[in-house]
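Lab meeting tomorrow. Look over both lines:
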Amino acid sequence: MRAEHNLTCLLLVGVLAAALGGLPAAGDAAAAAADRSDYEWFDPIIVVRRAVLDGFYEQPDEETLKHAMIDAMINALDDPYTLFIPPAAEADFNKALRGTYVGIGAEVNVVDDYLTIVSPLEDSPALEAGVMAGDIVLEIAGMSTQDRSIDQCIEQLLGEPGTPVTIRVRHLDGVEEPLTIVRQHIVTRTVKGLRRHGEAWSYWADETRSIGYVRVTQFVDGTLAELAEALGQLQEGGLRGLVLDLRGNPGGELGVAIEMANLFLDDGTIVSVRGRNRRPQSWQAEAPGTLADFPMIVLVNRYSASASEIVAGALQENGRAKVVGTRTFGKGSVQEVIDLPYEQGTLKLTSGHYYLPSGRNISRQLDSAEWGVDPDDGLVVGMSEEGYRDMILARRQYEVIRPDRPQEPGNFADPTWIRDAIKDEQLAVAMEALQTRLDRGTWPVLGHTDPTQLALDQRIDVQARLRRRLLDQLQAVEDRLLTLHNLADEAGRPPLVPADADLTEGLITVRDRDGNLVGTFRIDSGDLEFALRQVRLTPVEPGD
C-alpha cells in the first residue's frame, strides 16, 4: 500500500511539474520548499482516493470523484463566476462564448406543449426551407415534440454541417407540411434594430430627427463588425442621435467591449483591472477611428452585466453619453479561460475586478450599497420583472421575420406610442430625452429617483420572492406532515395529550436531564398535540 501510494505521488508530481513548466532549479531552496508544500497538500487526497477505490462496497466512478473534488475546490472559493467545464460540456460552453453553432438557424420556444418557431434567423437554412414565424413544429425526424423539453428538441435540431433534418410543421393557416433543412454553421447576430425590413433590421427610431437605435445582445467575435455595419447605415442617413440598448446583455469578451467604447471615445480611460496576483492594468481611448460626436443614450437595466457595464460606465464617466434605466447587475469579475492539459476540461477563473474610470468597483458585494453603473440624475427609470417580460413579448411582433406578410411598422418616434404599444417606459424616456436634447440643446430632467435605493429595493424584491417560494414549500411540507400524523393517529398511535383535556392557560414545565428546572410556559393557544409531535418524545410514567 505504501509503495503504491509513493508511486501515485511520483506520478502526480510528474504531471504537476509538466504543467508548471518543470521543477525548480536545485539551488532555489525557497522555490523547492514551496513546491514540496504543494505536493504535500495532495497527500491526504491521494490517500482518501485510494481508500475509496480499494474499500468502498461498490465500484466508484473515478471521473465522478475527480469532478466532485474539482467542484468542491471551486465552491470553497464562494465565487459564482469561477467554473469548471468538464470535457462533455465544452462544446456548449464554446458555442455560448463564440456565438456560433451548427443547426437550422431559428429562435424557438415551447408553446402549448409543442416546439414553436418564434422567428427564423436571417440567411438561415430554416428560412430558406420555408420555416415561418409562428410555425408549430409537430415532429423532428419523425419524433413528436409534444411534451418534450426545449433542450431535447434543440439537441435533435443541432448536428454536423451539411447533414439534413426533417421536421413537420403546422403553419398559421393550418396547413401541415414536412420540411427538410440542411444544417449549417449559424452565427448568432448580436446587433439588432427596432423592427424588420424584410430579413434586414431597421436601425432608425426617429427618421425625422435622424435618431438611430442599436441593441447589442452580447459581446462576441462578430459584434464589432455587425455594429460597424449598423452605424454605417445610420451615418449614411445623417445620424444625429443614437440609443445604444444594452439591457439584458450579459457581457462577453473584454476586448470587444474596449473596442466598442473606443468607437465613441477619442480620449480618456475606458476601464482598469486590479487583482491579487496581477499587475494593475488600464485601457485608454485613442482618437483614430472615433465616430463623429452626436448626442447619445445608453439603455441599461439590472441584467446588463460585465462588458455591458464597461461600455456604459466608460461612455458615461467620460461625458460621452447619458445612461437611462436602472443600476446594472454588478458583474465586474475578470475571467480567464484556462484550457486544462490533456483535454481534461476548461477552467473559467476569476482573477481580478473591473473598475470604472472614476475608480468605482463594478462588482456587486453583499455588504456594499455601491456597485455597477448608475443611470444619470433625472434619467432613472425602473421596470418590474413583469413589466420587463411584457415589454419583450410586446416588441416581438416587430422583430420576427415574416415572409408571408408585411412587417409591423410601429411608431418608435412617439414616446407615448412606445409606452402604450410595446410597454417600454425606459425606451420612451430615452427617446423623449434625446428629442429634447436635439430640439432644445439641453438634457431634460425626467425624474428624481435615487438609483441606489431603487437598486436595493430590486434586490430586496428578489430575496422576498425567494422567501415566498421557500415559505410555500415549507407550508407544503407542513401539510404533508400533518397528513402523516393523522394517518398515524388513525392507525392507532396513542395520543400524547388526552383528547378531552382542557389545556387553555395550562402550563408546560421543561427540565434538563438532571431534573433542574429550565422554564415554565403558559399555553395561550395552538395545537399542543401537533407541536409535541414535532420533537421525538417518550412518555415518562410518574415516579420514573
